[in-house]
Sequence to fold (249 residues):
Amino acid sequence: MIDERIAERRRQVRDQRRRHRLRRTIVLAVLLAIVVALVVVERSDLVGLEEVQVVGTQRLSVEEVVAAADLPLGTSTLRLGLGAAEDRVERLPLVRDASARRVDPLTVEIRVAERVPALNVRHGDERVLVDRDGVVVAEGNLRGLPQIRVDEAPPAPGEDVTAQPALANAHRAWRELSGPLRAEVVRYDASGPDELDLRLASGVTVRFGRAERVDEKVRSLGAVLEDLGDTEVEAIDVRAPSSPVVTPP
Fold:
């Protein structure tokens, strides 16, 4: 009886091993079939990129974005590096953000958010446009935007205002000014990192200096303007906000 039980147990173990080997063989065969199918599909025309769509451009052309993305037609969409394509598009000076996605097996969509010019920067005949983040987005000039005048060539498109300390100081002052006062400033004269004058629409020059203690300077300027009323002045110096100085015409 003992020998029969031992023999039966051995048969069960052998059966379990055969079933285990069979399951493993089936799993490996299925995985191999999937890999082969993927390779065949990946190399076929069924997933070859046929179109790159661009959404969100205004100043940029579709061709500029497509060229920057560098996604050759015919490339398998299973091998496209969309993250790298996004990075390449975001290197364009006018692009603030870019995202890419597969619309279908043959099409990729690139959605672009362009930088919006907020300031004109001028040095002699050189003019560039700067956005709120301080990035030079393009050469040129747009009517209706405040102007910063600098005493040296401005940074090139794609660069940041921090490349020029005087411009960076003026840009910081513009960002930190209160809404009503910012609306009154028609020009920022930045002759140095510590030398900034604000030209108001009324014709008054505000000696502002460094873009520090901005809130104090704004309050000081507001108090002086309120006290002056309709009195004409040439300049108001708020570089020391606790002791503003008024220069008569």
The chain has two domains: 47-114, 117-247. Residues 47-114 form a domain with the Ubiquitin-like (UB roll) fold (CATH 3.10.20.310).
